[in-house]
């Protein structure tokens, strides 16, 4: 670790840059721990630009934890639809209900960590930004900055220890956000903007000319190609669909268009269209077929087509609807 004078200089340059160049994001305009918590949960698996409209709509619908706690799971999932990783929304509702029992948003790190769906990163982020608790945040952006600063490919434990030593304990919230901002906007995975970096003079990887070597690239997982057929079965302004069970591992409570397993004996009719959809390493090639009403169907129900927008629909269902609407 650097000497105290160098560490002080690093913090000063970084925080000055952050104060002048930080992006104007809606969750940075408040110290409300609930709003900050909502943003951090959304940002776990979502890009900032994509999260902003969801954050604003979510806060408009559920402005505080009592409102979220009182909402039905279906309503919460509907507001979350499109963000993916729906266990996050279910955990948020459970956490809000726990806050009601506690009588408020927990104000210390260990208590925040007990909320469903909250891990070390989220507890540190919310705690430091909302309550100035001195806990360093380590996400992918911060880990990359640390790796390059010290030209090191250490593991998670080492990176967390270094981030903790770098942390400005007088301004932990601003410092954590500055580290994340640096990684998100300048210290990029490819083509880092070193000439614009406020701490470039202190970067070990840049001094060695090895910015692209840190952190060490991860081995890529090969993508899996999967073909899927969906059936559009329409009658009297209604369409057949099935709902994922409440205890499903993925997207519980969401509605889907039926596939072959749901319509025994059904044969594809006219092809309506197709689209591609990616989930982690799975690339789906989806074809939507118009099909006559079958004699039997498994786990399906008739839904009013005009009321579909009020239901939690999977992203694949929504993509299929876009094709059908534009026919």
Structure description:
This protein has 327 residues and is of the alpha+beta class. The protein folds into 2 domains: 4-213, Endonuclease III, domain 1; 224-325, Nucleoside Triphosphate Pyrophosphohydrolase (Alpha-Beta Complex). It is 43% helix and 13% strand. The protein contains 13 helices and 7 strands. The chain has helices spanning 4-21, 33-43, 48-61, 65-70, 73-80, 87-102, 109-113, 120-131, 140-149, 156-166, 172-185, 204-208, 315-325; strands at residues 224-232, 234-235, 238-243, 255-256, 271-279, 282-290, 300-304. A hairpin with a 2-residue loop joins strand 5 and strand 6. It is globular. The relative contact order is 0.10. The model has no long low-confidence stretch (mean pLDDT 93).
Characteristic terms for this protein:
alpha+beta; Endonuclease III, domain 1; 2 domains; three-stranded mixed sheet; 43% helix; globular
Please write out the topology.
Elements: H1 4-21, H2 33-43, H3 48-61, H4 65-70, H5 73-80, H6 87-102, H7 109-113, H8 120-131, H9 140-149, H10 156-166, H11 172-185, H12 204-208, E1 224-232, E2 234-235, E3 238-243, E4 255-256, E5 271-279, E6 282-290, E7 300-304, H13 315-325
Parallel strand pairs: 1-6
Antiparallel strand pairs: 2-3, 3-4, 3-7, 5-6
